[in-house]
Amino acid sequence: MKNQLLTILLLSLSASSVHGAVAAWGQCGGVTYSGDTTCVSGYACIKVNDYYFQCQPGTATVSASTASTTTTAVTPTTATTTASGTAPTGTGQLIRGVSTPIYHLYLQSLGGVPVMAAEATAERFIISGSIQDTTSGLYLNVDGSATTSYKAISFGATATTTGWGLEGDTIITTNASVFGRQLNFLACETSTSGAYKLYLQTGSDTPSGETCTSQTLHLPCLC
Ligand SMILES: *[C@@H]1O[C@H](CO)[C@@H](O)[C@H](O)[C@H]1NC(C)=O
Question: Signal peptide position in this chain (predicted)?
Fold first, then answer.
């Protein structure tokens, strides 16, 4: 956290010497990044992982007298500590929704949480038993310990879910000893408008207090 705040501080301090500003949800930093580090007004450059800093709603302000930094960013209610991974080589695939309200929204990390959100910030994934995010190097995992039929999905540094696969262009689970063949997900509203977090749905339970729709996930059109 301290490093993150320091980074935000440094990015904020360098703002005055940078021309142009990064659009909402755009990349504004990272190990191999060389572009602008200033976000448009109302957005702050937030570290998602070492390789990816993103302009998220909120403000980072620097107080000259105390040299302290405060950051407010809108993150999903389930936001957890961001793990770090090693970004793989390979291009990967986009993963998209095909029905309202996630029609043409794409899988990506929002503050370390896998969400369906705008195409402009879509990330690419290598689907090969595991699903690995080519931006962060993290793996898409399903929480198999959940007793409800819906199972939370998160990013992790190691692949604990290895039964991912494709059926045509549809993302499925295949491991008979865990979830079996499943292709239904719940996409649920987060506190960030236009970003929906995911559960794998293996039955008919629904998370109370959340607004969710039943969804399937797909590769972009193969036609
Ligand atoms: C299926 O899941 C079990 C339990 O997590 C795991 O031990 C096994 O390696 C998985 N099989 C495949 C093919 O991924």
Answer: 1-20
Is ligand 1 within 6 A of the CB of residue 174?
no
Note the pLDDT tens digit of each residue in 111-121. 999 999 999 99
Nearest residue to 73 via CA among 95, 102, 101, 44: 44
> How many C-beta atoms surround the C-beta of residue 141 within 10 A?
22
Amino acid at 132: Q
* Domains with residue ranges and CATH for the chain: 2-57 (no CATH), 96-218 (2.80.10)
Using the structure block, give the residue that is written with the tokens 């909402």.
24
Residue entry with tokens 């649920």:
188
Beta strands in 150-220 (DSSP E): 150-156, 164-167, 170-173, 185-189, 196-201, 212-215, 217-218
Which atom of ligand 1 approaches the CA of 163 most closely? 14
Nearest CA to ligand 1 atom 1: 175
For the whole prediction, is pTM greater than 0.85? no
Cβ(21) – ligand 1 distance below 6 Å: no
